[in-house]
Every structure is written in C-alpha cells, then in structure tokens.
Amino acid sequence: FSWVMFDIYQREQLLYNWQTVTFELAKKYDSVLILATQNNKIIITEEENPASTWANRWLPWGRMDPWEVDPLSSAKRELLEETWLISDHRELFTTYNTDHKLLYTKHVFIAKECKKIAEQSLDGWEKIKLHYYSFDEFITCVSDGHINLPQLENMVLRHRLNNTLATLKDRLWI
C-alpha cells in the first residue's frame, strides 16, 4: 500500500514449525536533524502545529523530500526554511534507525557558526520559535527529557557516563 507518509509492505513467511504468517514493514522518507550553533549557543526550536495540543522542543529538523537523495542538501534546506540560518561549517554527526518495523533513517548534522540571512518564512501549519542554549543548558535540557529526542538523550547520557562531554562540546564549536 502507498500512502501520503508511509508505504506498507507485507510478505508471507514460512516459520520453523511450517506455519505461514504475514510480516509487515512500514517505510517512510528519511529525516534530517541539525545541531546548529550560533554565537556559542545551540539552537533549539519550539514547534507547534494544528495537529498537536502542545509545543515540542526539537533540533531544527524535517523530512527529506521524495526527490532528494543527499541528506546534507535536505539538512541545509530545512535549516534555512525553519530558522533562516545558513552555515559554511557542516558535518554529519550520526545516523540512526528508530525501529526494525519502521524503515527510515534519521541523519543528524552539525552546523557550526550559523548566520541569519532573512526572517523566518514558515508554512501555514508551522509555528516555530527559536531558543538559544549554552552547552550546559542544552545538556541539562536533553538529560531532563525536555527535548523530544530519546536517541539524543541516550547519546548525552553515554557521554556523561564516560566523562566525554568535553569531546562532544569540542565537536560543536569551530
């Protein structure tokens, strides 16, 4: 089945006991997230949309469009659309998949020393405010679960346990 956001695939699978069952897999377009910095602050978005009853705090992010094959190009586009910021210093930070039954990848990029080139120009369903956090404020916010990204929270907690937060901080600044 092909839908607006998901494609659903089904297949028959013969089990070890000779029974047959149907397995399903959902696929959607990959997404990009951007750990963006400006003036030694990390940029967090507070997003509202008509389908939600609360605001979410995220990194700037978005879905890769169907014709896009390069996650970096998508990240540059999404950063510009949501924040009107650009960066000449970008790098892939990490990628991850969230579930074995939902096939898609999240690509996380670092965009250092972003520069504002215009005012935001949001789509009709978007309401986005930008917040600027120091590194320590960002770590506290992520660790306390106030930014809605469990994988980022796990990464930060791993760095805390291994006493490597300084290494993470160094990656974010030029």
What would your notes on this structure say?
The protein is α+β, with helices and mostly antiparallel strands and about 170 residues long. The chain is about 25% helix and about 40% strand. It is built from four helices and twelve strands, in the order ββββββαββββββααα. It has helices at about 70-85, 135-145, 150-160, 165-170, and strands at about 5-15, 20-25, 30-40, 40-50, 55-60, 60-65, 85, 90-95, 100-105, 105-110, 115, 125-135. The strands form three sheets. Strands 3, 4, 5, 6, 8, 10 and 12 form a seven-stranded mixed beta sheet that branches. The chain is globular. It starts with 6 loop residues before the first strand and ends with a helix. The mean pLDDT is about 90.
Radius of gyration: 18 Å
Provide the succession of SSEs. EEEEEEHEEEEEEHHH
Helix content: 10-25%
| Terminal-residue CA separation | 46 Å
Major sheet characteristics: 7 strands, mixed
Number of helices: 4
Quick check: average pLDDT? 89
